[in-house]
Design brief:
The complex is a heterodimer of chains A (102) and B (273). Chain A has five helices and no strands. With 102 residues, chain A is mainly α. Chain A has one domain: ACP-like (Non-ribosomal Peptide Synthetase Peptidyl Carrier Protein, Chain A), CATH 1.10.1200. The longest helix of chain A is centred in the C-terminal third of the chain and has 19 residues. Chain A starts with 7 loop residues before the first helix and ends with a helix. In chain A, 29% of the residues are buried. Chain B has an eight-stranded mixed β-sheet, with helices on both faces. Classes of the chains: A mainly alpha (102), B alpha/beta (273). The interface between A and B is medium-sized, with 19 and 28 residues.
Chain lengths: 102, 273
């Protein structure tokens, strides 16, 4: 596992890389912004969220548990999830971990 | 992400295993429904919180669905039952498991329990019923209506306006499965369960239904057809019980597992098992 980078921008970049891999396109082929919704704008399906969850754990470790996060949300909110919200979730979990380590 | 070869087909599964291994760990196996369904319905709702409660949770994509291989033929109910048995064997799961089946996944669970009663500790069926003649008729009608609707662009327009573009994509995905396989022709062939088959489902069953779901015509038909079944009805809910009411389903499931695991291990500790 690669140690997580510190900045929010780095997390956003990581998520873009993961989404491009899931979409099976070259990095940058599809422009991704924090406002993009994973389903409506990027065309991802619910099974893709499973893959993204696994890739986030691979990247950051078990503390970034997307499945646990989404299980606390309504289905409409899951469908409407935006890239920026996903980045905020990852950043918050990493911050939680850093606090726990102190 | 795990891939296992099941009856010659690459099958996608996800294990969420309980961290605490100091006491007996029950196993829940989640079986999703047909069409646009996949293991995601369970993975994104129940799997993580149930695993956190100290339970191993196995979810998998049925043949032709999600990330599993989509063969052109081989979609009888019996094929799905055989796949479940082969997957459990492949993963070394030989103890009785709690099957949680959503819609057609529940139908698979019932037929699996009738065929392999020693491998099932209990069933939690969500908007599901066993594969009987009435079920086969209902499936046939549903498939015919779905295929007819999918051929009409106005239907997709209505889906988009009513439920949003996400559901349009799901509907198109279901259409792809239906058009590229013999699923529609084969699923309802069963084999169906007769009275002896239903009696063979000897494990305890929790049937969770929406009051406005697919069994709204008789909410206790499943219970009255099985030896040991309890029914919970969620008022004002349609067929989408799992995704729309997953916190309620989670509470019911955890309570059900606790009740039946206590009984199971107390039984074993008495030396009677």
């Amino acid at each position: 596992m690669i140690p997580p980078k510190a900045s929010d921008t780095a997390v956003f970049d990581d998520i873009c890389t993961i989404v491009w891999r899931v979409l099976d396109v070259e990095p940058g082929d599809i422009e991704i912004t924090p406002d993009d919704s994973l389903t409506d704008d990027l065309g991802l399906e619910s099974i893709d969220l499973v893959t993204i969850g696994a890739m986030l754990i691979e990247r950051y470790g078990e503390q970034v548990n997307l499945a646990a996060h989404l299980a606390e949300m309504d289905i409409d909110d899951v469908i409407a999830l935006r890239i920026g919200e996903l980045a905020d979730f990852v950043t918050a979990r990493l911050a939680d971990e850093q606090l726990a380590e102190r | 992400m795990g891939m296992a070869t099941v009856n010659g087909l690459e099958t996608h599964y996800q294990w969420m295993q309980a961290r605490d291994r100091s006491r007996p760990v029950p196993t829940v196996v989640c079986v999703h429904g047909l069409g646009y369904d996949s293991l995601a319905s369970f993975y994104l709702t129940l799997a993580s919180p149930v695993s956190s409660a100290g339970i191993d949770v196995l979810t998998y994509d049925l043949r032709g669905h999600g990330r599993s291989v989509r063969p052109p033929t081989g979609y009888r109910l019996a094929d799905f039952v055989d796949d479940l048995e082969a997957l459990l064997d492949e993963l070394g799961v030989h103890h009785p498991v709690h099957l949680v089946g959503n819609s057609f996944g529940g139908t698979i669970a019932f037929s699996f329990a009738a065929k392999y009663p020693d491998r099932v500790a209990s069933i939690v069926s969500i908007e599901a019923e066993p594969a009987t003649e009435p079920w086969s008729d209902k499936m046939g009608r549903t498939f015919r209506n779905t295929i007819e609707a999918m051929g009409d662009d106005r239907y997709l327009g209505w889906v988009g306006e009513t439920f949003g573009s996400h559901y349009v994509r799901l509907t198109k995905a279901a259409a792809t499965v239906i058009r590229s396989t013999t699923l529609v022709e084969e699923v309802a062939l069963g084999p169906l369960l007769d009275a002896d088959g239903l009696a063979a489902i000897s494990c305890p069953v929790l049937s969770i239904l929406g009051s406005d779901g697919f069994q709204s015509d008789d909410l206790h038909a499943v219970q009255s057809s099985l030896p040991d079944c309890r029914t919970e009805v969620i008022d004002g809910q349609n067929h989408s019980v799992l995704v729309e009411r997953h916190p309620t389903v989670r509470t019911m499931l955890l309570s059900w597992i606790a009740e039946h695991e206590t009984a199971r291990f107390a039984f074993a500790e008495d030396g009677a098992a």
